[in-house]
């Protein structure tokens, strides 16, 4: 019983169903782990009393017909949770208590799960290391000097440290896949529009997408099934029949065509990443897949495009933080305008301010055509690269990140070097496609590395299947020493 | 192009963010390095490319123009830093 929290979500669900463990015992085991892991700084809010109540309620009247029956889950603090503080890693929201629940979390609860706590993240999900959070940086369980990735760094850290059986994050430019890669876990960014954005603190609305972060591919399919679905309250939600990803999970990938894009071999990429990619290709080939060389010629322009589009949308979305209707208000300033300026200056951190300024500038009169319009044109070219490739292949295999987890503080003084960490993940967001990051090996320091599978729009099932087959044959297992407890 | 301090102060004004004088130099340096990176896009000729307006091949849905929500003033006012019973309260605007 003591090691129930080491297990995958699907194993835990099985144990609950067969009454090997009660929901209460399970919840207590996680609470104990969380209390012993304060050093990781993964949680910003815990809801233990509420979780214990929910667990008891479940045990009294178990309903095992649901996808997530009786399971406590912690979620990224970017999802609004009714009557539970939602701060998005920012001082400007540090007293915000939503009176509504995000659609995605509501879907999880409707499937039998309940809230265990809220997980730290980069401020407004702007960051690749969790160092921009107002509530302090999160530590990677892999090593006490390492970042857990970002922006869903609290989520990746908590998952890898057995503080939650599975979790959810959001991914605007790699914020699920990069932290998954840095912690040896599985992360999926779904097709834009598959999971509702309603009730998620907005960063860049044409790129933001919520997705699961789990220990296994099977767990990922269960979570995706639970959280996805059409929502009238999100104007870009896709109206289609709900899929049963977990039931349809298959490990036969014989004959599938896997594209290998030459542009993902970048200068100065560590040899280990290249070797990992070769290993991944070999595994898929041995399973009967066919490898096909492809070209995505505009890949190098994805990151510069992203750093126009995302800040532009952010500057517009974050205009709502004015100190009037909710959130922090500065006490300084002699009139309304000064109150706004001081509120936003004191309430936002440096990275968020930088991005608001970039966004305001690229949208300002006289510069719109040179920056924003130009970026939307290049975005079209990037999308077309993928469209063209997907006439020839079923999925695309690339590394998830150009390096393993880096040291805390290593990149904080150089924003561009921080941004470059998302070089392999950003193109997918610009094109609205689904992509899965899978743990695939260790570098010479013993830190996890991930590979990414990119699919056609709404082809989540296929990349999950390929991932499932890959996982069975890769032999990767996270072995983390619990140095923090 | 490069951004000078004056331009940055102007943009900050537009964004309603007061900038600490002591931080203007480092902000100028950071923003210029970011813009240098962004301006790689100028290598590309995009004269004949249509800008992307939506990544979904669907148009935005419209809903019926009818009231679906309301009478939640208390909930809406709940998180306000300053309010009275019916309104958000802001610093005096009219002299």
Quick recap:
The complex is a heterodimer of chains A (485) and B (95). Chain A is α/β, with parallel strands linked by helices.
SSE blueprint:
The complex is a heterodimer of chains A (485) and B (95).
Chain A: H1 9-17, H2 23-35, E1 43-46, H3 48-60, E2 72-76, H4 103-110, E3 114-119, H5 153-160, E4 167-170, H6 177-183, E5 186-189, E6 210-214, H7 217-227, E7 257-261, H8 271-286, E8 290-294, H9 302-317, H10 336-347, H11 350-363, H12 369-389, E9 395-399, H13 415-419, H14 426-431, E10 435-442, E11 448-455, H15 460-474
Parallel strand pairs in A: 2-3, 7-8, 7-9
Antiparallel strand pairs in A: 1-3, 4-6, 5-6, 5-10, 9-11, 10-11
Helix pairs in contact in A: 2-3, 5-6, 7-15, 9-11, 9-12
Chain B: H1 5-14, H2 24-38, H3 73-77
Q: What can you tell me about this protein's structure?
A:
The complex is a heterodimer of chains A (485) and B (95). Chain A has one domain (1-485): Amidase signature (AS) enzymes, CATH 3.90.1300. Chain A is built from 15 helices and 11 strands. Chain A has helices at 9-17, 23-35, 48-60, 103-110, 153-160, 177-183, 217-227, 271-286, 302-317, 336-347, 350-363, 369-389, 415-419, 426-431, 460-474, and strands at residues 43-46, 72-76, 114-119, 167-170, 186-189, 210-214, 257-261, 290-294, 395-399, 435-442, 448-455. In chain A, strand 2 (72-76), helix 4 (103-110) and strand 3 (114-119) form a beta-alpha-beta unit. In chain A, helix 5 (153-160) runs parallel beside helix 6 (177-183). Chain A is globular, with a radius of gyration of 21 Å. In chain A, 61% of the residues are buried. The mean pLDDT of chain A is 97. Chain B is mostly helical. Chain B has a domain at 5-43. Helix content of chain B is 32%, strand content 0%. Chain B is flat, with a radius of gyration of 23 Å. At the A-B interface, helix 9, helix 10, helix 11, helix 12 and helix 13 of A face helix 1 and helix 2 of B.
């Amino acid at each position: 019983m003591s090691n129930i929290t080491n297990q995958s979500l699907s194993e835990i669900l099985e144990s609950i169903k067969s009454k090997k463990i009660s929901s209460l015992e399970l919840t207590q085991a996680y609470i104990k782990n969380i209390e012993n892991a304060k050093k990781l700084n993964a949680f910003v809010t815990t809801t233990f009393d509420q979780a214990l109540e929910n667990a008891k309620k479940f045990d009294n009247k178990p309903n095992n017909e649901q996808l997530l029956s009786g399971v406590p889950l912690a979620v990224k603090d970017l999802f609004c949770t009714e009557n539970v503080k939602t701060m998005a890693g920012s001082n400007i929201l540090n007293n915000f208590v939503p009176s509504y629940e995000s659609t995605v979390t509501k879907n999880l609860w409707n499937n039998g799960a309940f809230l265990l706590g809220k997980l730290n993240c980069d401020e407004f999900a702007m960051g690749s290391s969790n160092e921009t959070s107002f509530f302090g940086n999160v530590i990677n369980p892999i090593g006490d000097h390492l970042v857990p990735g970002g922006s869903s760094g609290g989520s990746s850290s908590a998952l890898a440290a057995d503080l939650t059986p599975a979790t959810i994050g959001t991914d605007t430019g790699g914020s699920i896949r990069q932290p998954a890669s840095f912690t040896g876990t599985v992360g999926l960014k779904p097709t834009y529009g598959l999971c509702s954005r309603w009730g998620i603190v907005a960063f860049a609305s044409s790129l933001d997408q919520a997705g699961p972060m789990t220990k296994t591919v099977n767990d990922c399919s269960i979570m995706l099934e639970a959280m996805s679905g059409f929502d009238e309250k999100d104007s870009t939600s896709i109206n289609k029949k709900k899929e049963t990803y977990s039931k349809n999970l298959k490990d036969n990938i014989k004959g599938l065509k896997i594209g290998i894009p030459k542009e993902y071999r970048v200068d100065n990429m560590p040899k280990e990443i290249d070797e990992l990619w070769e290993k991944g290709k070999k595994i898929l080939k041995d399973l009967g897949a066919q490898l096909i060389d492809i070209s995505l010629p505009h890949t190098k322009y994805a990151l510069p495009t992203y750093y126009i589009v995302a800040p532009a949308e952010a500057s517009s979305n974050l205009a709502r933080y004015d100190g009037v209707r909710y959130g922090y208000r500065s006490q300084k300033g002699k009139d309304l305008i000064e109150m706004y300026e001081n509120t936003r200056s004191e309430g936002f951190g440096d990275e968020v301010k930088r991005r608001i300024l970039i966004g305001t500038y690229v949208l300002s009169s006289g510069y719109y055509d040179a920056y924003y319009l130009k970026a939307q044109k290049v975005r079209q070219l990037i999308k077309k690269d993928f469209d063209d490739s997907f006439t020839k292949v079923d999925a695309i295999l690339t590394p998830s990140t150009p390096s393993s987890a880096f040291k805390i503080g290593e990149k904080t003084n150089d924003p561009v070097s921080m941004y470059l960490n998302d070089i392999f993940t950003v193109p997918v967001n610009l094109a609205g496609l689904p992509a899965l990051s899978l743990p695939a090996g260790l570098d010479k320091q013993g830190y996890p590395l991930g590979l990414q599978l990119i699919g056609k729009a709404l082809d989540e099932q296929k990349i999950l299947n390929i991932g499932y087959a890959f996982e069975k044959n890769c032999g990767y297992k996270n072995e983390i020493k619990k140095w923090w407890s | 192009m490069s951004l000078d301090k004056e331009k940055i102060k102007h943009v900050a004004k537009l964004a309603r963010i007061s900038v600490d004088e002591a931080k203007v130099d480092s902000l100028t340096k950071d923003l210029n390095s970011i813009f240098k990176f962004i301006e790689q896009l100028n290598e590309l000729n995009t004269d004949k490319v249509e800008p992307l307006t939506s990544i979904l091949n669907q148009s935005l849905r419209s809903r019926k123009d009818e009231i679906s929500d309301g009478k939640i003033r208390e909930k809406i006012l709940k998180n306000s830093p300053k309010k009275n019973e019916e309104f958000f309260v802001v610093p005096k605007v009219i002299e």
